[in-house]
Amino acid sequence: MQKEFRITPWEVSGKIDYEKIIKEFGISKIDNKLLERIKKHTGELHLMLRRKIFFANRDLNWLLNEYEKGNKFFIYTGRGPSGPIHLGHLGTWMFTKWLQDKFNVELWFQFTDDEKFLFKNKSFDEIQRWTGENMLDVIALGFNPDKTHFLVDTKHANLIYPEAIKFAKKITLSTVKAAFGFNDSNNIGQVFYTSIQAVPAIIPSVLKRKNIPCLIPLAVDQDPHFRVARDVYPKLGFYKPSIIHGIFLPPLSGISGKMDSGGKGDERAILTTDSPEEVENKIKKYAFSGGQPSIEEHRKKGGNPDVDVSFQYLKMIFEPDDKKLKEIEEDYRSGKMLTSELKTYLIEKINVFLKEHQKRREKAKKEIKKFMFKTRDPLR
Ligand code: TRP
């Protein structure tokens, strides 16, 4: 029997049913009408929109209404720095960069070192090291430093904390218990945390002393934080942020669940620091295949791209050419293309990408300062 899936920001398990998520979370599908509306402004659609990788939203029509009235938005997203960055994370941020470029807007990027300290069994120092490491990957994607601001929760506490307590005062213990499945053995920092993640969605409004619309691209597991905080924004005099929800890049082991870069599961994910040999090895050894057990059988029956992790990676990130993707899909389904050929194609794509990424990642070491938000007045 199919195990029930479960999604909270800290746990994703079971086979994920996105239609059910839409219903349960009370979010809306991105339909073709909305896609056309986005395209009017961007000229083209990012592959993650064309292919419904970003599949749902909250209040995106409202955000575009405001935009069309000349009321520009800013983008907010974030990273919990608990370990190395894998390809799944990069997908969301590549899309975020596309949004920043197309709409020419500011990006506020939150590093939740406090969250990971509170939720993971790791020391504060280790989390600080990952914060620095993870920043390199974000910078390497090419965000515009003049329009991108990094917030680190424990470093920008003077800015974040006075706002966080305003959210905290309006969120009850029973609400977070219901939303996240907390119980009496959760530590009290965890209970408070959602109020911290809510804050960057209002920071530019607070600093400029006027309401500015906010768009949050996220993987759908992060939605519960904003569902909890949603009713609070207007009570504090701010707009509710608009959200655009992405699905997860599957782990190498199969299409259910999300990639986990932490713990002992590194063989399950491709990291941005992997060498070409490591990439080759991981894909060949671990990438779940929708192919048949023998070549003869594969030629006869064909493979199943829908469950094939290598094909999914091409679809979600590495093959922007729709025609080429379709060709691969058809050839794989018909048995003309073998799993080994599909994997070789993907390995090459990933390695070309990572070679460039790793170069930029090295250069990024000198650029962190430029991205860190500088509070002019510590008392604000
Ligand atoms: N909690 C997120 C994580 O664990 C990080 C994060 C903070 C975030 N603010 C966000 C993610 C806003 C998406 C949108 O990675």
Would you write up a description of this structure?
Helix content is 51%, strand content 11%. The protein has 19 helices and 9 strands. A hairpin with a 2-residue loop joins strand 1 (6-8) and strand 2. It has helices spanning 18-25, 32-42, 47-50, 60-68, 87-103, 113-119, 124-140, 157-168, 173-180, 188-198, 203-208, 223-230, 232-235, 276-286, 295-301, 309-318, 322-334, 339-364, 368-371, and strands at 6-8, 11-13, 28-29, 54-58, 74-79, 107-111, 148-152, 214-219, 242-246. Helix 16 crosses helix 18 (339-364). It is an alpha/beta fold. The site of tryptophan (TRP) has 12 residues, from strand 5 and strand 8.
Keywords:
380 residues; alpha/beta; Rossmann fold; 7-stranded mixed beta sheet; two-stranded antiparallel sheet; 19 helices; 11% strand; globular; binds tryptophan
Stretches where pLDDT is under 50 for at least 5 consecutive residues are: none
Count of helix runs: 19
- CATH class of the domain at 5-253, named Alpha Beta
Largest sheet: 7 strands, mixed
Count of individual beta strands = 9
The distinct ligands, each listed once, are:
tryptophan
Q: Given the C-alpha coordinates, what overall shape results?
A: globular
What's the architecture of the domain at 5-253, going by CATH?
Answer: 3-Layer(aba) Sandwich
> Strand content of the residues, in percent?
5-15%
- Gap between N and C termini: 56 Å
- Please give the radius of gyration in angstroms: 21 Å
- Helix content range: 40-55%
Arrangement of strands in the largest sheet: 3-4-9-8-5-6-7
Can you tell me the CATH superfamily of the domain at 5-253?
A: HUPs
